[in-house]
Amino acid sequence: MAKVFIELQEILEYNPRFIDTRFDLTDNTAGRKSYNEEHLEGAIYWDLEEDLSDMTSQNGRHPMISKEKMTCLVQKSGLNVDDFIVIYDQGAAPFALRAYFLLDWAGFTNVYVSRAGFGDLKRALPVSKSEPVYTKTTTIPNWTNRKLLTMDEVRQVVAGITEGQLIDARSNVRFKGESEPIDSIAGHIPTAINFDWELLKKDGKFLEQEELKGKLADLAPKDKPVIAYCGSGVTAAPLYSCLKEAGYENVQLYVGSYSDWIRENEVETE
User: Fold this and answer.
1) Which domains does the chain have, with CATH numbers?
2) Catalytic annotation, pick one of 157, 169, 200, 230
3) Catalytic: 72?
4) 229 to each of 11, 131, 135, 206, 241, how far by Cα in Å?
5) Contact between 230 and 197 (Cβ < 8 Å)
6) Using one digit for the tens of pLDDT, what is the confidence trace for 44-79?
7) Which residue among 10, 20, 27, 131 sits deepest, i.e. has the most Cβ atoms within 10 Å of its Cβ?
């Protein structure tokens, strides 16, 4: 069973490389400002839109980055594939888990997301205003391409040609098409089921493994592929990660998500 989340006590036992991914979808400068004010000592900053998305692409609101961009990101960050890495954000947010997915895709095997947010972490760990400088590496990721689905591959799932269960991480009212505050078309990808990612957390933290197993146990057979998506590919990352934590063996992510799907495809409503 995959371990995605790490507890503060476990972090204190190691000397990890920290990645700060705090972000605010309503103010895309807030995360960097917060980092500049203070961050965990030694932490680098990865911005959702500057680093973890390709905002020049038309494939959804937070499109997938290229292998070339991801390779450059890990190299300039001074990361090696076997580094012990802990990613954090403000807590119970999707941003650290977006970074986790990208590193998982890139074949990093010792990557974890802090269950505690920055507010709790800074009470136990030293903080700094200085941005660290690490020596650039020549790391070449070991890509795990099966974790990432394109629109064409999702079409194969919808058509029943390829096995898999699509799971929509948005709210139920958006899934049913009863309300759509962001996208131009309301509804969901055909054949998808719904599990609101907000149900994966409480009290400012993601649920512990046993709780996640209980909530997610009956969504789909654990030995069959499950594909997480959302509106723009950001809040699907918590669902992707929590499905792994809950024991699902073959978890995939459609980063383009609903905002990409509706460019060329029909939808369903309930």
Assistant:
1) 5-143 (3.40.250.10), 149-261 (3.40.250.10)
2) 230
3) no
4) 30, 33, 35, 18, 12
5) yes
6) 999 999 999 998 888 878 889 999 999 999 999 999
7) 20
